[in-house]
Amino acid sequence: MIFALVPPDHGAAIPALADSSSAAGMIGSILVIAVVVLIIVGGYFAQKKRAEQLMRFAQAKGLTYEKRNDAWANMDWGYPFGAGRAQKARHVMTGHLNGRPVVTFAHEYTTGSGDDRRTVHTMVTAIQIPRAFPKLEVGLEGITGRFARKLGFKDIELESEAFNRKYKIQCDNRKFAYDVLHPRFMEWMTAIDSNGFTIAGPYVVIHRTGRLKEQEIDANFAYISAVIEHMPGFVWANAR
Fold first, then answer.
1. Is 10 part of a structural domain of the chain?
2. Is the separation of the CB atoms in 54 and 216 below 8 Å?
3. CA separation for the pair 98, 74 (Å, rounded)
4. Torsion of CA 211, 116, 81, 142, to 10 degrees
């Protein structure tokens, strides 16, 4: 048997070694995707757990729970309603307290875009009353005050200078504002360091910056009930 040496074919393709930088880049991309998936899945289960927790809380309080109902996000209740875009109402709890319809929920709206995109969270609580009144907004400077002035509302000055320095009052019906915010009412609000309130039609509403906190719900309802009790009797008699 004769063996012949075959010279190497210099034109033949040489197998390429794997590019380590490309492999590292692929692994990095896979890790990024995996992290994103974990965040999404983790967020979903966290939201699900939170919804179940709040549902149990609402049931214990005799309230009805809805995970989301954006009809409540579009109420004409002053700030934060009408601010930003993509308004949402999450974790909506409705029911009755001392015969009055009540609601509390987590309000959200979005501002900015891209890297400047931001979601603003507010806890909203309201009690429905048997009369419809003109809109009256009483809020601290920097929250209701600036927002209302952007919409063209002017501040109302009351008898108490201390109250005027602390609060901004907006109301189209100045007489109604003066009637509601009588001296004892202003003294009470100042004494408890109140953040204010809004009367809008047949609702008395308050909002608190931040996410919904179930441990604050009872106190919020109690505060609104106290606001209602401080409204003088002749105001109710003159209401439609």
1. no
2. no
3. 26
4. 80
Final residue belonging to a domain, choices 60, 83, 108? 60
The C-alpha atoms of residue 68 and residue 88 are separated, in whole angstroms, by: 8
Q: What is the pLDDT along the chain (240 residues), one digit of tens a residue?
A: 555 555 555 555 555 555 666 766 777 777 777 776 666 666 666 778 989 999 999 999 999 999 999 999 999 999 899 898 999 999 999 999 999 999 999 999 999 888 888 999 999 999 999 999 999 999 987 655 555 555 555 567 787 888 888 899 999 899 999 999 999 999 999 999 999 999 999 999 999 999 999 999 999 999 999 999 999 999 998 876
Burial class (CB in 10 A: 0-12, 13-18, 19+), 166: middle
State the residue range of the domain holding 110: 63-238
- How many domains, the chain? 2
**Residues 39 and 81 placed together within one structural domain of the fold:** no
The C-alpha torsion from 200 through 201 and 202 to 204, rounded to 10°, is 10
The whole-model pTM stands at 0.77
Looking at the structure, tell me whether residues 117 and 44 fall in a common domain.
no
Name the residue with tokens 């109140």: 194
Asked if residue 176 and residue 197 are part of one domain, the reply reads yes
Q: Provide the CA 99 distance to its chain's centre, in angstroms.
A: 26
Say if residue 102 is in the same domain as residue 139. Answer: yes
